[in-house]
């Protein structure tokens, strides 16, 4: 799952209107943001095997520290706690913390059985990636739903608020389809360095969100 995680982040703005979209993207995609770092450190392993599933050539051999459910619950608790220490907003901290393990749930739907509940435990997965049409349908639906929710609770303050958001979404879609239909990465090291680009979406989302106001705030000012 890739677009679906961004859909969760966008939709979470309804539950935490004072949280930056950048923080919500960080929370929903934290597992995938840490994963390439852990690959480069040798703490987790992946193999490139074209045909592994209809959607991705990646065989996720071992990623207990980023993608097991227990690990994501711990990462979520940590992220929520740190956020609360700095922002003193319990609601936003809770939403950010909860967004982290939603990553496991969506990946459990998408992946073949390689998602562990705890490090070293049995692996699970419904295998949606074995169907390319189903994968595309579910991912795009989740993203569109998230965009609809986000647009329903925010309003662009200026042109940047419109263009920064839509340019991010367009780049997100281009990246997704390039990964889905492009050639497999030539090596795990290249894969890891390329995957680090996902961190760009955090400041990009935060920038777009700073130029948008909540619909409630706009309504109060125009009432």
| Class from secondary-structure proportions | mainly alpha
How large is the count of helical segments?
11
State Rg. 18 Å
Strand content bin: 5-15%
Domain unit count: 1
What's the count of strands? 6
Question: Order of strands across the biggest sheet?
Answer: 1-2
Query: Helicity range of the residues?
Result: 55-70%
Distance separating the two termini: 42 Å
pLDDT averaged residue by residue = 94
Low-confidence stretches: none
Q: State the order of secondary-structure elements, H for helix, E for strand.
A: HHHEEHHHEEHEHHHEH
- Biggest β-sheet: count, sense, barrel? 2 strands, antiparallel
Tell the overall outline.
globular
Q: Could you explain how this protein is built, in words?
A:
- With 223 residues, the protein is mainly alpha-helical.
- The protein has one domain.
- It contains eleven helices and six strands.
- The protein has a two-stranded antiparallel ribbon with strand order 1-2. A two-stranded antiparallel sheet has the order 3-4. Strands 5-6 form a two-stranded antiparallel sheet.
- A hairpin with a 6-residue loop joins strand 3 and strand 4.
- Helix 1 crosses helix 2 and helix 2 runs antiparallel to helix 10.
- The model has no long low-confidence stretch (mean pLDDT 94).
